[in-house]
Amino acid sequence: MNISLGTPNSDIVPIANTGSDLIWTQCKPFSKCFKQHAPIFNLHKSSTYKKISCCARQCKNLQGSSCSIHNSCQYSVFYGDSSFSGGSIAADKLTLASTTSRPIVVPNIVIGCGHNNSGSFGEKTSSIIGLGQGEHSQENSRIACYLIPKLGSHELRIIIDSGTTLTLLPTELYLQLESAMSNQINATKIEVLKGYNLLCYDARNDIEIPDVTVHFTDVNVKLKPLNTFVKLSDTVRCFSFYSVEDFAIYGNLEQLFEVKGQFVPALFIFGDSIFDVGNNNDLVTLIKANFPPYGRDFVDHEPTGRFCNGKLALDIIAEGLRFTDHQPAYMNDKANGEMLLIGANFASAASGYYNATAILYNTISLSQQLENYREYKNKLVDITGKSNASSRISRGIHLISDGSSDFLQNYYINPLLFTTYTPDTFSDILLNSYDHFIQNLYELGARRIGVATLPPLGCLPAAITAFGHGNNQCVARLNNNAISFNNKLKHRSQRLTRRLSKLKLVVLDIYNPLYTLITEPAENGFAEVRRACCGTGLLETSILCNQHSIGTCSNASQYVFWDSFHPTEAANQILAQKLITSGM
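Above: the chain sequence. Below: its structure as tokens.
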């Protein structure tokens, strides 16, 4: 099927992807693109191309959207193999060619015009047609996508439909598949609905479920128990295939993965205020952010405990990985039951690799975060069973951001430390703690871990104010300490990877992307880097950044920093893209 975009028609070569909710294509002008054979779509040459503003419903309802300084709607999408696309949301005409009838024209379809794209899409590809379950994929799903899979020796034509939950197969084929599955499962069958031939089992005990492989024309897709059985209750699990006559539909339960096996069932987050989403809210500590103006640009414009005007880079990464809910703060009363299936956030502002840092501010130390994670794992076993819990842990991504508070809120201001240890020896102490933490996570089942480097400490507004001696430039001494620590972090991580054979440990570079925003603000759409948005922007953070702070800016998207330590949502959008592409 030939598909074109705009007026006059410009051919695009899309991949159908149930992990995306909108159509996006590479566009001129671009800052980064992957190589493609077809001409790149030029938005300036399409007379039907229309920008969508931040106030439009299409923008507000798009998961992961943001607003540019020119009030145009922006999008970012990330995929499990580190591919990504970012750019402008717009509307244009889509044309589907037909060999048997007149072309199908879809006017004003919402598209993403990708100006910053990278990944393993292939040169024959120029775009993605999203067949997910978001609002913008509903029109896209009219574009029928046919594949020819084989199950056993049977070949059939099947429709991939993200709106159908179960996979529907012709009766003869279904009965053979059901028989093969029944022979492999040693559990008690139960009848759930009279008159419906559902294959269901008593799930009060763990059930060992075999994998099912679907042989498509060009690829084999292995379906895990997550795909092939649906949990109807705590005691009942049913086969996600069903029999029909004369047609076949590949349902959305079977689509909960990417072909490369990159489906992420859960995120587990540790560290400091860069990742804290509210674990300090009920602690007796000054280091918290559950009051205005924090959160003024977040969902419902309410503070949550995030040290930002809106979303953290973590939130944007989670949305890009197709999570529809944010991982809950583990200390929150709502962090229970099924909310825990997508993971949990254990991070606590003013904590660090050095446990004494958290003790100093009465926050949650990294060692206590590990104990909370251990407790979480036991809860997960109670919810899903031991086998499923272990699978969710091992396939989930564990993220860590720590060390900044150890330096800025402890070492540099604590004579007991800076007169006893050089920055180099203090870094070694922190890295020994990091080493121990990773080994403990590994012993608890973690296999996919991402650790963030230190940011350019000397460029944070509070650091320049406190240690810059009246100079408004980045403090080189602090940046050099951060660079030295980051180099050691990389070497220590390589050693851990060699020692722990099944560990995938990735160091996520936050230093260079943030340093680029600070040193090249105009090129990245920012107007202010020395001062933060909140208050005077020189020293305010936590309780000093409050609704009575004089001078708080009205448009945080022009600022790199929200308070004197933490980036704005606008900066986090860019940092999230960079963290994804650095290998997570």
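The longest strand covers residues 104-118.
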